[in-house]
Amino acid sequence: MAIPMPTRQLFIDGEWREPILKKRIPIVNPATEEVIATTEDVDVAVNAARRALSRNKGKDWAKAPGAVRAKYLRAIAAKVNERKTDLAKLEALDCGKPLDEAVWDMDDVAGCFEFYADLAEGLDAKQKAPVSLPMESFKSYVLKQPLGVVGLITPWNYPLLMAVWKVAPSLAAGCTAILKPSELASVTCLELADICREVGLPPGVLNVLTGFGSEAGAPLASHPGVDKIAFTGSFATGSKVMTAAAQLVKPVSMELGGKSPLIVFDDVDLDKAAEWALFGCFWTNGQICSATSRLLVHESIASEFIEKLVKWSKNIKISDPMEEGCRLGPVVSKGQYEKILKFISTAKSEGATILHGGSRPEHLEKGFFIEPTIITDVTTSMQIWREEVFGPVLCVKTFASEDEAIELANDSHYGLGAAVISNDTERCDRISEAFEAGIVWINCSQPCFTQAPWGGVKRSGFGRELGEWGLDNYLSVKQVTLYTSNDPWGWYKSPN
């Protein structure tokens, strides 16, 4: 399938533009290693967003009724549904995820726009919410207003969906936005720009800026015309974004990945638990920030359970993501492919056992494919146990007691997700409270819903996306207090 974008590089102020420096980034199909298209200025995009924010004294967008913005969000959702099949194919081609997953993503994209359309409408009714005061001579209320121009820097593992997690609530709040997708997978974000043009979104409300992080993302973070940065990506890049934003005391929200644990107790159905354990790590080709890639298994079932994991892993279809039934596609790029293999090699040299996988599947000569990999005999000091791999690599360790399991689970710099599988409800409740994580799954791993908050603690970042919390990310709270008495204040002696 051809990528319909050779002439679409930047979407700024409602128009397609060539980058000023004429630089183009090759887009590579990770399943075939073929170049399928090419794609890159910050000042132009920021100026367009600021004009859109203040146009007609803000009445066209920022100060428009929430129902006006909701109309556009619903129109975008309808277009996404209309184009769902093509968008899913583009996503699968661009980042390598199985087509069935990409179709699911597009359903979530449309649902996210619909959800925030509803919240945009509800925002008007929440304005001037009264504040109870202890003095009768004063009345106070709260206004919620858009933060302004926001920079949205998004990753390549869910190119369109994670972009929309930021775009939909920011537009619902009345902000104008500059979206900077990953240079590794930006095709569907440019398609979103085309959809916005089709539905008549006012020029400058959403601008899409492609390019490398150093040339587009970093200047966006430090630009004085950008009022907030929302970032999803690595801890290393996130800390640089925070440093740039801090020079202007610019608010940021950060989702920085993780090394999430999954605890499996000895009272479970082993096959059901094995499938969740693999899904929690191998979904989206293992390229999930919340992947439960540290598996903790009760020692009494460890041997049998690990056998189940291997049997289930051998049954996973690894293929071109466009093939029917594909459940594991290629990782996104050659660089990522080599990085994952290096992690596996280091684990082996440190004394771990590569029990299954760990290399290219024999039946696939081209593409950035890595077999689903299961590693045992790991220690807590090993790199593979402590660092985020971002690939289909599952590490397994045993535990003897609930307290030991919790201690091992929380022994990480990260704190995005965590999961427990057990038939003991009270135990699950105890462990959910004990987990040092922003998201907890019980008897499952990785389900995500637009209505529920998403975000982490520790080095996994701060701030929450999705749900009502996602909208709050893009709103400022203004207190307004009115003196209602006809009496003078009387603090100073009157000169009269």
Automatic annotation (TrEMBL):
Span of domain Aldehyde dehydrogenase: 21-480
Keywords in alphabetical order: NAD, Oxidoreductase, Sodium
InterPro entries (alphabetical): Ald_DH/histidinol_DH, Ald_DH_C, Ald_DH_CS_CYS, Ald_DH_CS_GLU, Ald_DH_N, Aldehyde_DH_dom
Catalytic function, reaction form: 3-aminopropanal + NAD(+) + H2O = beta-alanine + NADH + 2 H(+); 4-aminobutanal + NAD(+) + H2O = 4-aminobutanoate + NADH + 2 H(+); betaine aldehyde + NAD(+) + H2O = glycine betaine + NADH + 2 H(+)
Functional pathway: Amine and polyamine biosynthesis; betaine biosynthesis via choline pathway; betaine from betaine aldehyde: step 1/1
EC primary class: oxidoreductase
UniProt keyword Oxidoreductase, yes or no: yes
EC number: 1.2.1.19
A Pfam short name: Aldedh
Gene Ontology MF term list: aminobutyraldehyde dehydrogenase (NAD+) activity; betaine-aldehyde dehydrogenase (NAD+) activity
Membership in a protein family: Belongs to the aldehyde dehydrogenase family.
Protein name as catalogued: aminobutyraldehyde dehydrogenase
Lineage, broadest ranks: Eukaryota, Viridiplantae, Streptophyta, Embryophyta, Tracheophyta
Gene: ALDH10A8
